[in-house]
Amino acid sequence: MTGSRMLEYDGSTFHEDCFTCHGCEKPISAEAFIPDKNNYYCVPCHEGRFAPQCSHCKKALTKGGVTYRDEVWHKECFLCSGCGAPLAGQPFTSQGEAPFCVKCFSSLYAKKCSGCNSAITGFGDGKYISFEERQWHQPCFKCSRCSVSLVGSGFFPDRDQILCTDCNNDD
C-alpha cells in the first residue's frame, strides 16, 4: 500500500493498518502490544482475555496482588470487612468467607478471657485454656486467691473463681 508505514516485528513486515489486535481488530501501530502465539493483542484486550480479575473491583490484575480463598485481589482492594482497612501484609483472620483485621475480629467475634476480659484472638501468644463456658489466656489462667499459675496443674472451680489445690484445701 503506497504511503503506508511499514512495521517490523519478529522477522515479519506489516503494513501499519494490517498490524491489528486479534481481539478488537484495531491497528496496533506504535502502541504497546502483547504477542500470544501467532496473534498480537493490544494491552486492554490482552488484560481482558487473559489476566485474572480482582474479586473486588473485577478489573484486571496485572501484577502483584493477594490470593485469599482461591481468589485474587489487588492489594488495595483486599480490605477488612469490618472497618475497610487494607489487609495486605497485615495479620488478619476470617469469619465465614469475610476477612477481618485483628481489631474488628476481636470486637465482633473473639471469645473474652475470664481473667483479663480481653479478646482471645489466636494471634501472638494464642494458646488458651477452656473449661466449661469460660476461656483464659495461658498467662491469665491462675489461682484467683494466690495467683499461682494453673497451667498444667489441677484446679478447682468455685463459682466465678478457680483455685489451686492449696487454696482449695484452706477452705
Molecular structure report:
The structure is a single chain. The protein is an alpha+beta fold and 171 residues long. It has 3 domains: 6-50, Ribbon (Cysteine Rich Protein); 66-108, Ribbon (Cysteine Rich Protein), CATH 2.10.110.10; 111-169, Cysteine Rich Protein (Ribbon). The protein is 12% helix and 28% strand. The protein is built from 3 helices and 14 strands. It has helices at 43-50, 102-108, 165-169, and strands spanning 6-9, 12-15, 33-36, 39-42, 66-68, 71-73, 92-95, 98-101, 111-112, 119-120, 128-131, 134-137, 156-158, 161-163. The strands form 7 sheets. Strands 1-2 form a two-stranded antiparallel ribbon. The longest helix has 8 residues, at 43-50.
Task: List its traits.
Cysteine Rich Protein; alpha+beta; actin binding; repeat; Znf_LIM; zinc; two-stranded antiparallel ribbon; zinc ion binding; 12% helix; 3 domains; two-stranded antiparallel sheet
Explain briefly what this protein structure is:
With 171 residues, this protein is α+β, with helices and mostly antiparallel strands.
Q: Tell me, what's the shape?
A: rod-shaped
The class by helix and strand makeup works out as alpha+beta
Biggest sheet overview: 2 strands, antiparallel
Helix content percent band = 10-25%
Percent of residues in beta strands? 25-35%
Question: How many domain regions?
Answer: 3
Task: Say how many strands there are.
Answer: 14
CATH superfamily of the largest domain: Cysteine Rich Protein
Based on CA atoms alone, the radius of gyration comes out at: 30 Å
CATH names the topology of the largest domain as: Cysteine Rich Protein
Q: Order of strands in the sheet with the most strands?
A: 1-2
Q: Whole-number average pLDDT? A: 83
Low-confidence stretches: none
Named CATH architecture of the largest domain = Ribbon
- Compressed to H and E, one letter per element, the order equals EEEEHEEEEHEEEEEEH
Termini separation (Å)?
106 Å
Q: Helix segment count?
A: 3
The level-1 CATH class of the largest domain: Mainly Beta
GO cellular component, one term: stress fiber
GO molecular function, one term: actin binding
InterPro entries: Znf_LIM (IPR001781)
Organism: Acanthochromis polyacanthus
